[in-house]
Amino acid sequence: MLTAVVRNTRPIRDVLRTAGVPRLLAADLIGRLPTGMAALALVLLARYRGADYTLAGLLAGGFAVGQAIGGPVLARLVDRTRQPPVLVGAAFVAAIAFGALAFIDLAGQPIVAIALVVLAGAATPPLEPCLRALWSLLLPDQRAVHAAYSLDAAAQELLFVGGPLVVVASVSVFGGTAGILVAAAVGLVGAAWFATAGPARRWRGAPGERHWAGALRSGRLARLLVMLVFAGGAVGTFTVAVTAFAEQAGVRPAAGWLVTANGLGALIGGLVYTAVPAGRDPSARLRLLAGCLALGFLPLALTPNVWIGLPLAVLSGLFLPPVLACAFILVDQLAPPGTVTEAFAWVVTAFSVGYATGSAVAGYLADHVGAAAGLWAAVAGGVLATLVSVPRFAPAMSQEG
Fold first, then answer.
1. What is the rounded distance in angstroms from the CA atom of residue 148 to the CA atom of residue 134?
2. Where is the Major facilitator superfamily (MFS) profile domain (predicted)?
3. 15-204+217-388: CATH homologous superfamily?
4. 256 DSSP assignment
5. 165-200, pLDDT tens digit by residue?
6. For 351, phi and psi rounded to 5 degrees?
7. What is the pLDDT of residues 236-256, one digit of tens each?
8. Residues 221, 215: contact at Cβ < 8 Å?
9. What is d(CA 128, CA 14) in angstroms, rounded to the nearest whole number?
């Protein structure tokens, strides 16, 4: 068993030894850290300024909506130009929008606050699709690319482990506005580091057919994106719901630990999944993984105790990276020629739309029903993602070597 695990992790080690990959992965994670910080930083900022959970949920959801709007637009612009100017310019705009949030009256100017959050989300640099566009340039074969997708899905969970910890540390030391200001700074630094890497500077988009619908002209890809909307909805309810859960229990700081525990579970799940060989039928595997995602939220929804909820929050995060890694494989198969980068941006958008909806729903439920209702909404999102996955997205293929 141990020998098999070591053998299956060899492609991951080969990917990490490839020239340029460690820097790109590190810069990508730093540049995307605001995504892992934003939800908790915005909720805590809203509560620090005396706003209710409805506005807190709208702010967290508004950031995701902004990402959903801006991601495909920026990715298509990258395809038609180059990576560095788009990444650095977008990061600069996002940093200004985040910084402005720290200096306005959120409760007194909710429309302005939501507009700034949406702008920050829309200007989020498309580092994720840019990195995936580089894999085929950097790596020697499809087996290595498959391994890179698994590593990518695992590594991005560091955002949801490290992001909340950075927020909690910043707020504890410097006050309620610090989380959002730190997010502004690290996002700009990470994007600049990524954009100045050699592979990013050399990359050029491949010529392809220009169609107004872009990647969305593939019906099966569109259905995969719907599935990811529901999966994102399940995750989106979590941050707002557990913050309300911790506050109702009289231990508001525990919210950061619950969010971190969920991210730690996702990191564990992603790392374990890197040792799982590629399957012959990614559609069937995705269906199974989506069902496990739904079941992972169930124990947390049933627990009455915050501290018992910590190990259950780890469980709730285990299956998200495998779901995403399996979806990445399908995107490669389903995207029309010349639209892969944009298709990966739509994956981010679909997940963000779901996340935004889940955040807003959880905020409403926390104010009007109770924190536990938001956790049950997470279970429901996972169930809906499973149901959408029942018909195959793509035919079974021969086993990869």
1. 11
2. 220-401
3. MFS general substrate transporter like domains (1.20.1250.20)
4. H
5. 888 888 888 877 888 899 999 999 999 999 999 999
6. -65, -40
7. 888 888 888 787 777 777 777
8. yes
9. 21
